[in-house]
């Protein structure tokens, strides 16, 4: 039996890959206008990075990581997300010492989570993310959000909803944490064993539980926004004011809980409201993570960022019927008949390509008629026909496929001619 692809992964084939390249192109262009620079980190890291970075009590670390021992008996994990790796690279390469701060980075690449696959949820998926490190300015929170929205709107997505929340600073979080323990403790026996473990370690995670999400205590749990101290409240107000100033619409949802432990202050998600998008509507998620750089061994440095799944953007583009580039046709198909014409055709084809002209020929010994068929299949704008007679007269017959117009061009003028007509 033929070997099949692992569950939760996919091949992105020609015909589909064009939309990926298009998304990546827009992402890079927008990042450049906002002055975010690309960083490329390894696909695997020491397991401890994610235990410390993403958090020991999260589903990602407890259930979803691809962790294995390498031949040197080290515990290695395929990265489940990009923030921890980016922060490690920031610390390890001492980017905090560079004169321009904050350090604004972005990444695009595969991430791995052992989840139950369904539409929009893969085991290998691709994330674009940004991380801005070294500033506590709420304007930066708003900038990161604006960048995400700007990418989506450049791609033509319209049916979006931005939901924001604040987890506040440590003091606010501790007050909220205590209230959560008090809320859940008397009836914790009714919750799953994971939640029972979470009660003392990290009660906020209970609110993110997939098994117990319908328990009546979930809806009545104390909301973080009521526990924000003055400073955290003022910070959140500023973020909202900046968003409003930029004309970015948002909803505040005090029940928004993210699946990773490193957040404080601003957290957010962007959902697709397109009909037919599917059950999982979150396109992007992110937030502020002051404290993470210290946790990973660096100097005290605030940070904020977000990540979005490229698979989900592709789904959203399809759900909104947005137009995007698909496979393109070629400029010229060179039809050659006879061994000498073949020799010349190979030379001409190479010259066409050197001049930036998209060109192709037959490699399967096809007859003339079949070669024209191939030209049509490749959506060639022109065909250039070279047989023994043409070669003798040092000419080539160029045909515009759509109009049917033909011209005989001197062989030594052919490249110049093609350059002119394909400009
Ligand atoms: P996250 O919410 O775990 O956050 O993931 C961000 C986005 O990645 C999701 O909204 C979704 O689009 C995509 N995604 C996640 N898991 C899957 C999956 N199994 N299949 C397909 N797409 C998926 C983070 O990863 C944080 N590092 C974001 C961040 C950056 N926060 C601060 N900086």
From TrEMBL:
<dbReference type="InterPro" id="IPR033656">
    <property type="entry name" value="HisRS_anticodon"/>
</dbReference>
<feature type="binding site">
    <location>
        <begin position="262"/>
        <end position="263"/>
    </location>
    <ligand>
        <name>L-histidine</name>
    </ligand>
</feature>
<dbReference type="GO" id="GO:0005524">
    <property type="term" value="F:ATP binding"/>
</dbReference>
<feature type="binding site">
    <location>
        <position position="127"/>
    </location>
    <ligand>
        <name>L-histidine</name>
    </ligand>
</feature>
<dbReference type="InterPro" id="IPR006195">
    <property type="entry name" value="aa-tRNA-synth_II"/>
</dbReference>
<dbReference type="Pfam" id="PF03129">
    <property type="entry name" value="HGTP_anticodon"/>
</dbReference>
<dbReference type="InterPro" id="IPR045864">
    <property type="entry name" value="aa-tRNA-synth_II/BPL/LPL"/>
</dbReference>
<dbReference type="GO" id="GO:0006427">
    <property type="term" value="P:histidyl-tRNA aminoacylation"/>
</dbReference>
<comment type="subunit">
    <text>Homodimer.</text>
</comment>
<dbReference type="GO" id="GO:0005737">
    <property type="term" value="C:cytoplasm"/>
</dbReference>
<dbReference type="GO" id="GO:0016740">
    <property type="term" value="F:transferase activity"/>
</dbReference>
<feature type="domain" description="Aminoacyl-transfer RNA synthetases class-II family profile">
    <location>
        <begin position="1"/>
        <end position="325"/>
    </location>
</feature>
<dbReference type="GO" id="GO:0140096">
    <property type="term" value="F:catalytic activity, acting on a protein"/>
</dbReference>
<dbReference type="InterPro" id="IPR015807">
    <property type="entry name" value="His-tRNA-ligase"/>
</dbReference>
<feature type="binding site">
    <location>
        <position position="131"/>
    </location>
    <ligand>
        <name>L-histidine</name>
    </ligand>
</feature>
<protein>
    <recommendedName>
        <fullName>Histidine--tRNA ligase</fullName>
        <ecNumber>6.1.1.21</ecNumber>
    </recommendedName>
</protein>
<feature type="binding site">
    <location>
        <position position="258"/>
    </location>
    <ligand>
        <name>L-histidine</name>
    </ligand>
</feature>
<dbReference type="InterPro" id="IPR041715">
    <property type="entry name" value="HisRS-like_core"/>
</dbReference>
<feature type="binding site">
    <location>
        <begin position="81"/>
        <end position="83"/>
    </location>
    <ligand>
        <name>L-histidine</name>
    </ligand>
</feature>
<keyword id="KW-0648">Protein biosynthesis</keyword>
<dbReference type="InterPro" id="IPR004516">
    <property type="entry name" value="HisRS/HisZ"/>
</dbReference>
<feature type="binding site">
    <location>
        <position position="113"/>
    </location>
    <ligand>
        <name>L-histidine</name>
    </ligand>
</feature>
<comment type="similarity">
    <text>Belongs to the class-II aminoacyl-tRNA synthetase family.</text>
</comment>
<keyword id="KW-0030">Aminoacyl-tRNA synthetase</keyword>
<keyword id="KW-0547">Nucleotide-binding</keyword>
<dbReference type="Pfam" id="PF13393">
    <property type="entry name" value="tRNA-synt_His"/>
</dbReference>
<keyword id="KW-0067">ATP-binding</keyword>
<dbReference type="GO" id="GO:0004821">
    <property type="term" value="F:histidine-tRNA ligase activity"/>
</dbReference>
<keyword id="KW-0436">Ligase</keyword>
<dbReference type="InterPro" id="IPR004154">
    <property type="entry name" value="Anticodon-bd"/>
</dbReference>
<dbReference type="InterPro" id="IPR036621">
    <property type="entry name" value="Anticodon-bd_dom_sf"/>
</dbReference>
<keyword id="KW-0963">Cytoplasm</keyword>
């Amino acid at each position: 039996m033929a070997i099949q692809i692992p569950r939760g992964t996919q091949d992105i084939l020609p015909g589909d890959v064009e939309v990926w390249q298009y998304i990546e192109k827009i992402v890079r262009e927008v990042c450049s206008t906002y002055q975010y620079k690309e960083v490329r980190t390894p696909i695997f890291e020491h397991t401890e990075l994610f235990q410390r970075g993403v958090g020991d009590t999260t589903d990602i670390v407890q259930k979803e990581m691809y962790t294995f021992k390498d031949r040197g008996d080290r515990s290695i994990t395929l990265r489940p997300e990009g923030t921890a790796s980016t922060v490690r690279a920031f610390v390890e390469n001492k980017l905090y010492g560079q004169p321009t701060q904050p350090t604004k980075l972005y990444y695009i690449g595969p991430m791995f989570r052992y989840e139950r696959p369904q539409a929009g949820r893969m085991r290998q998926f691709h994330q674009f993310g940004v991380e801005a490190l070294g500033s506590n300015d709420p304007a930066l929170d708003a900038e990161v959000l604006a960048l995400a929205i700007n990418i989506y709107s450049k791609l033509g997505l319209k049916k979006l909803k931005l939901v924001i929340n604040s987890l506040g600073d440590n003091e606010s979080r501790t007050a909220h944490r205590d209230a959560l323990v008090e809320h859940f403790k008397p009836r914790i026996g009714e919750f799953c064993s994971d939640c029972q473990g979470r009660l003392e370690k990290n009660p906020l995670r209970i609110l993110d539980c997939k098994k117990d999400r319908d328990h009546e205590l979930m809806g009545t749990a104390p909301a973080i926004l009521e526990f924000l101290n003055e400073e955290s409240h003022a910070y959140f107000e500023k973020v909202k004011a900046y968003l409003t100033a930029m004309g970015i619409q948002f909803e505040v949802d005090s029940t928004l809980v993210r699946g990773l432990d490193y957040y404080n202050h601003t957290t957010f998600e962007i959902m697709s409201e397109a009909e037919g998008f599917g059950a999982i509507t979150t396109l992007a998620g992110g937030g502020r993570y002051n404290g993470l750089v210290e946790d990973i061994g660096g100097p005290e440095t605030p940070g904020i960022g977000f990540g979005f799944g490229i698979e989900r953007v592709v789904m959203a583009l399809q759900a909104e019927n947005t137009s995007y580039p698909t496979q393109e046709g070629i400029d010229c198909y060179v039809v050659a008949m006879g061994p000498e014409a073949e020799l010349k055709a190979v030379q001409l084809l190479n010259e066409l390509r050197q001049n930036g002209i998209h060109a192709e020929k037959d490699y399967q010994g096809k007859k003339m008629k079949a070669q024209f068929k191939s030209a049509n299949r490749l959506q060639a704008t022109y065909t250039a026909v070279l047989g023994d007679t043409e070669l003798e007269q040092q000419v080539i017959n160029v045909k515009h496929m759509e109009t049917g117009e033909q011209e005989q061009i001197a062989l030594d003028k052919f490249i110049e001619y093609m350059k002119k007509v394909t400009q």
